[in-house]
Backbone:
């Protein structure tokens, strides 16, 4: 198996309504996003062309989030909810017989990030709670 990743940056504002602290106030971040696929190369030797992945992520995600107010797009836009939203937008578009979306990572700051790997993670959370 091979893992293919591409990173993106977008700027956006949000506030966390259900949070008590400074993040309940309107503020912004320069977010970093990493999209990772897992799969096998095709006859051209690629899991997916980086140019095509960039186009798809810009079209489906970055164009909607960049320089926008995330609360109007994603309910309670924590890093976790942003990662799940990105996953839900991209997963059906990236999956084929050779590859699938493996994980989505969202950084709010240089050292604070979340990684989401799809609905299997939710089963883990349910078993703990």
Residues:
């Amino acid at each position: 198996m091979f893992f293919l990743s591409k990173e993106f940056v977008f700027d956006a504002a949000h506030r966390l309504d259900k949070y008590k602290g400074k993040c309940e106030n309107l503020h912004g971040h320069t977010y970093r996003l990493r999209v990772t696929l897992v799969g096998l190369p095709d006859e051209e030797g690629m899991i997916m062309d980086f140019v095509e992945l960039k186009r798809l992520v810009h079209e489906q995600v970055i164009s909607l989030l960049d320089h926008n107010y995330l609360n109007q797009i994603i309910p309670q836009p924590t890093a976790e909810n942003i990662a799940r939203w990105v996953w839900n937008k991209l997963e059906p578009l990236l999956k084929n017989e050779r590859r699938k979306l493996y994980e989505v990572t969202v950084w709010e700051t240089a050292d604070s990030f979340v990684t989401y790997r799809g609905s299997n993670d939710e089963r883990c959370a349910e078993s703990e709670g």
